[in-house]
Every structure is written in C-alpha cells, then in structure tokens.
Amino acid sequence: MTYINVRHRARTRIVASPSQQGSTPMNDKQLRQHVIDELDFEPSVDSSDIGVTAENGVITLSGHVPSYTQKLAAERAAWRVKGVKAIAEKIEVRFPTSEKINDDEIAQRALNMLAWSTTIPRDAIKVKVQQGWVTLSGQVNWQFQRLAAEAGIRKLSGVKGISNDIKLVQTVQPADVKERIVGALKRHAEVEANRIHVDVRPNGTVKIDGEVDNWDERQAVERAVWSTPGVSAVEDHILIA
C-alpha cells in the first residue's frame, strides 16, 4: 500500500502504511487491545474519551480530545503498534467552553508566532482561520521551514486542525536533486540505498519505490528526500518487507 498523508478539513482521515508489520498473525481483538494499551501508556494523551476498533488490521480512532496536539499524538501512538496496516482517524477536538477562542484571536497569535520565528522568512506565509481550522499558504525554500510553521501553529490554543498549503520554491534541476537524494540515502546507516529507487520529475515531485525492513527506516528515507533542496512533493511507495 501507499502511505498517504492527507491534510484537509474532512473529519475522517485514512492513512495507510505499506504493509503489515511483523510476521506473526494477530487477530483484530488482540490488535485493538494493543492499540488501547499504547494510548493509555502515552503520557501526552488523555485516552479516556478515545474509542478504538480494529478490522483486518485497519484501526479506527474515534471520540474526542481536548487539543489538536493530543489528536496527533494519539495517531502517532497507534502507528507504533505492530500489526497496524491503516488508520481511519475520526477523533474530534473539543475545547472546554471556557477555553473557546475566536478565529481572529487565533489568527493574530499565529501571525505573531510566525513573525517571531527565526527559521521562517518574514511575510512568506499567509494565515486563514475558520472555525478553529488554520490554513497556511505561501512559499518557502525548504521543507523544514514548511514544517516549522505548522509545528508552531499546532501548539496554539484553540486550533482544531491545520491545512498546510505552503509551497516549496523550485531552485535546482531534477538531475541534481536525484544525485543529492541518492547520496543522502547512502550516508544513512539505517537505510540500504540499493533497495530504494528514486525518480525526480521536472516539477520537483519525487517518487520513491523499494523495500525497507521497518517503519522507522521508511521514515528515514522520507526525511532524507525532504532534506534535499528542490523537492516540492514526495510520493512514497516504499514497502515494508
């Protein structure tokens, strides 16, 4: 399967991993309990109002949490469980009535945070807030700047979700991008570069195929690709062997 990171305003988000991890079969009842245990173990998540179901390795997370950061932390915790093949994420963010913050106040806080950041170019990013959902747009040169903007907004009170529509400026040729990516993969101790195929399109989109041994290696490959200047998008088709 392809890992798809969907960021939009739909309430249900389905994220699929490449393949089932591990070689020992696990039934859905066991998998569900393991996910529940992991959520209870995660200190940054109040899991008392989170529901978990499992069907054929697909985990559905439902219920509600008091912050957007907890919503993301719950998803990450579920992904850590061996045997999870996909996640349907239906968790809502519900703030206590006393903590509800107006959209204009969220927008002003977001602008202030971006202005104070030393990694994000001034006035490069625009902010739109609607019913607690923040949409970021604009252009930056590096993926880490794009991620830094989202990470900062994520911590603001009142934020229910983020759509990161920030674009990356194309600054180098596809051949140079591919050469740098392959070199970066060879330098990563945890990645076998000869098992990864890289294809760079003229618009800066990089398609990666191949196999890795676990989820951490797959993420290491993605980080190496995104760390390369000129990459505007990544299509990750890597499978876990």
Topology of this structure?
Layout: E1 13-16, H1 28-41, E2 50-55, E3 58-65, H2 68-79, E4 86-89, E5 92-93, H3 103-116, E6 125-130, E7 133-140, H4 143-154, E8 161-164, E9 167-168, H5 174-187, E10 196-200, E11 205-212, H6 215-226, E12 233-240
Parallel strand pairs: 3-4, 3-5, 7-8, 7-9, 11-12
Antiparallel strand pairs: 1-4, 2-3, 6-7, 10-11
Describe the structure.
- With 241 residues, the protein is of the alpha/beta class.
- Strands 1, 2, 3, 4 and 5 form a five-stranded mixed sheet that branches.
- It has helices at 28-41, 68-79, 103-116, 143-154, 174-187, 215-226; strands at 13-16, 50-55, 58-65, 86-89, 92-93, 125-130, 133-140, 161-164, 167-168, 196-200, 205-212, 233-240.
- 32% of the residues lie in helices and 27% in strands.
- The longest helix is centred in the first third of the chain and has 14 residues, at 28-41.
- Residues 1-15 and 18-24 have low confidence and may be disordered.
- The termini are close together.
**What would you call the shape?**
flat
Q: Beta-sheet strand percentage?
A: 25-35%
**Ends: how far apart?**
12 Å
Task: Give me the strand/helix succession.
Answer: EHEEHEEHEEHEEHEEHE
Separate helix tally? 6
Low-confidence stretches: 1-15, 18-24
Concise account of the structure shown:
The protein is 32% helix and 27% strand.
Task: Considering the chains and any ligands shown, give keywords for the structure.
single chain; 241 residues; alpha/beta; 5-stranded mixed sheet; 4-stranded mixed sheet; 6 helices; 32% helix; flat; disordered N terminus
